Amino acid sequence: MAGLKHIFENTTVTRINPRFRHEMADAEKLLLCFQCGTCTAGCPVSRFSSFYNPRKIARMVQLGLKDRLLSDAALWLCTTCYTCIDNCPQGVEVANIVRSLRNLSVKERRVMPLISKKLALNILKSGYAYIIPESRIRRRITQGLPHLPRSNLKQIAKLFEVTDFLDTIENAETFEKVEVKE
Length: 182
Known about the structure:
By secondary structure, this protein is mainly alpha-helical. It is 51% helix and 3% strand. The two termini are 22 Å apart. Mean pLDDT is 86; it is low at 1-11. A two-stranded parallel sheet has the order 1-2. The chain folds into 2 domains: 2-109, Alpha-helical ferredoxin (Fumarate Reductase Iron-sulfur Protein, Chain B, domain 2, Orthogonal Bundle), CATH 1.10.1060; 113-175, no CATH class.
């Protein structure tokens, strides 16, 4: 148990779900993780957060600590730079696992960063994550740049509807920033 101390520091584990690791995307690769730490050594975020540690997250998934993982907003600190994947000698795709954990957090706990909610709503409105000002569109034309591709907003709205994503983002609580716990 002493080897697991770093995982349980400042944590109240309410429930362990041994099937959780098999429910995750890339579960087979995740089981290959032998905790060498190369994912964390290259991670630009892990040096700023005691919770956000790719190796620790992989181990917590292996142990079935679903509630603990989904209850911490630090999952949103991952920049998806894929350095963890690039460095892993076993090919474990930790960044993809973090993305799956984020999706579960939004789906099950209905909590997401405010910026993610805004970006999703922008996609619904315009087809782009960033609503492009009319002045920028005019400047593109005067510079001889091609028109930006038109989005099919009806298809985007349908996709949001059939996946229940619109309901999810409309009803999700938001937080402005992740408080880094030390």
